């Protein structure tokens, strides 16, 4: 864990703890390979054991900190390439070939993060207390299976994840930035918004238009996973079925880059599902990418101090609320960490 994760600002810009984070698409971690990624302030090694189960561990050998991602995949163990120490998927040292029987053998010495695969992505739990049990991974309904179908669209953008959260909680940009798109060309270009509380967050919605453009966003925190859900109406050319729902999760890579997961979902069954899947691959996906590209260009070009000099108005009240919530959580976690640190030092 980087030192900046001890501070309120660090936790805000890299992501608060005690959350599940989407790390990467499942396909990025191939059998027999060691995959290195940075996410939310952690340097990570991802690999699959011989049953295909994915493991997420710190990319740091417990012997002398060499990068395990430069090591050897042995099926159900990995071996550090520096002096050959072998570790299993639970982070236990399975063998020290250069010094058999040494005290390191059998010790859980490698930080290992609880990991799950769901909806085509790998998730890991980053706990404030490394040894505490994670909350259950509860995902929003559109990516929980059942009557819904989805495609995962994955991006890496060169800007803070916080700017993507702003973008997702800002329905009004649909009628302006995306006005020439196939989905957001109609409806009013002015609106009055309201906030409606839910059990898992809040909905930010236009009071005078729904089902016409990008008219609402919902912040969802299901006791561990933070995401945004929104609806965009599909035109008739998108075939039968309801609107186009997006579930989005964003995860910091570092302070200046983030990974974005956009599950593009539709509640369709039977032949309508087949029809959507066909149309999506053949026509809709390229158009959706064009829209996302408009978001990327806007977000990446934002000044680094964008939040320092803003003049917000009524359409921005969701951002204000969410930023306040995230900062309050970062502050609480930094304070609790500071409290725990002297206790930990005394215990040593
Ligand atoms: S640093 Fe990994 S085995 Fe020595
Ligand atoms: Fe957008």
UniProtKB/TrEMBL annotation:
<feature type="domain" description="Rieske">
    <location>
        <begin position="21"/>
        <end position="124"/>
    </location>
</feature>
<keyword id="KW-0223">Dioxygenase</keyword>
<protein>
    <submittedName>
        <fullName>Phenylpropionate dioxygenase, large terminal subunit</fullName>
    </submittedName>
</protein>
<dbReference type="InterPro" id="IPR044043">
    <property type="entry name" value="VanA_C_cat"/>
</dbReference>
<keyword id="KW-0411">Iron-sulfur</keyword>
<keyword id="KW-0408">Iron</keyword>
<keyword id="KW-0001">2Fe-2S</keyword>
<dbReference type="GO" id="GO:0004497">
    <property type="term" value="F:monooxygenase activity"/>
</dbReference>
<dbReference type="GO" id="GO:0051537">
    <property type="term" value="F:2 iron, 2 sulfur cluster binding"/>
</dbReference>
<dbReference type="Pfam" id="PF19112">
    <property type="entry name" value="VanA_C"/>
</dbReference>
<dbReference type="InterPro" id="IPR017941">
    <property type="entry name" value="Rieske_2Fe-2S"/>
</dbReference>
<dbReference type="GO" id="GO:0016705">
    <property type="term" value="F:oxidoreductase activity, acting on paired donors, with incorporation or reduction of molecular oxygen"/>
</dbReference>
<keyword id="KW-0479">Metal-binding</keyword>
<dbReference type="GO" id="GO:0051213">
    <property type="term" value="F:dioxygenase activity"/>
</dbReference>
<dbReference type="GO" id="GO:0046872">
    <property type="term" value="F:metal ion binding"/>
</dbReference>
<dbReference type="InterPro" id="IPR050584">
    <property type="entry name" value="Cholesterol_7-desaturase"/>
</dbReference>
<keyword id="KW-0560">Oxidoreductase</keyword>
<dbReference type="InterPro" id="IPR036922">
    <property type="entry name" value="Rieske_2Fe-2S_sf"/>
</dbReference>
<dbReference type="Pfam" id="PF00355">
    <property type="entry name" value="Rieske"/>
</dbReference>
